[in-house]
């Protein structure tokens, strides 16, 4: 088998596992379902991965990496600190599908397995830290009120997104997600100083 | 069998299902595990419930009812609107266990089943409405800034709790939950007027 074909199989296995974990969770994802979706045989799977847990780890790492890149596109973008956090909060999402990483935190087999929990922990830790950095930068530039706690506010922003998914899925309607985002944005807008309000929004 | 004994069996079945759904989700909860935990035979289960789905519905309704009562104890309590929302946000929780209703929104078999989704939808709909009422009452009393949107802010508050659980479970540490709550409380405190700040906090 050529390197290209091997990579192809491995890639198909990882992508299928990513999808199935998102849709069905860890307990609901059988090795059989992964093989069927990837269109590969059992031998190929065990050639690349020791089993479901190893495949799940590769899939979670990949999903976390993609989420981080998507968030960074907003948080590292142009504009004031408020603009960048607003871009993250309001970026286009398939709200009713929820968050593929947040979803995993409800899976006992994932959170009770330190190896599988690590990509989740690292992703959210990075996200909270990145939002806190953006807010602290806004404060240094005088755009945001000095009294704002960047670390606590960053946790609030990250929680609103994750909790917004929960509310939307319960309602089978994206409206509660959108309301939660608008609510926190309005509270954050009240922390914008006159410098921030007239800031360069290129 | 006496009425008392019948109620005992039914009650044990519902409580066991509540616990198992919280711990393992819908897919991970087998009728066999319910029977074992409840300590009842298969015949008794089918005497009271047509199957797993009917038992899950009874369990979800019960859990939602309990959550609503617990939230109402805080939101219907004494003090200003800010105090009552703060009481809800900071009430004692086993954060790492997460929310038994929020957890269910990640279960495809629950959210894609209109009957099973209904208790989730009703609970969160009630919660957002109740928080919005408390905030609107605070505005009418002049305790909170008139510009605050009670409905959006209520969604934010509910989302912070649900998302806080997600962040805490990813970190295996309640700290991100507590940070998210402190963050939204600080943002909300900035909306408290001089009337609200000197309000009667009986």
UniProtKB/TrEMBL annotation, chains A, B:
<keyword id="KW-0804">Transcription</keyword>
<dbReference type="InterPro" id="IPR011075">
    <property type="entry name" value="TetR_C"/>
</dbReference>
<feature type="DNA-binding region" description="H-T-H motif">
    <location>
        <begin position="30"/>
        <end position="49"/>
    </location>
</feature>
<dbReference type="GO" id="GO:0003677">
    <property type="term" value="F:DNA binding"/>
</dbReference>
<keyword id="KW-0238">DNA-binding</keyword>
<protein>
    <submittedName>
        <fullName>TetR family transcriptional regulator</fullName>
    </submittedName>
</protein>
<dbReference type="InterPro" id="IPR001647">
    <property type="entry name" value="HTH_TetR"/>
</dbReference>
<dbReference type="Pfam" id="PF16925">
    <property type="entry name" value="TetR_C_13"/>
</dbReference>
<dbReference type="Pfam" id="PF00440">
    <property type="entry name" value="TetR_N"/>
</dbReference>
<dbReference type="InterPro" id="IPR009057">
    <property type="entry name" value="Homeodomain-like_sf"/>
</dbReference>
<keyword id="KW-0805">Transcription regulation</keyword>
<feature type="domain" description="HTH tetR-type">
    <location>
        <begin position="7"/>
        <end position="67"/>
    </location>
</feature>
<dbReference type="InterPro" id="IPR036271">
    <property type="entry name" value="Tet_transcr_reg_TetR-rel_C_sf"/>
</dbReference>
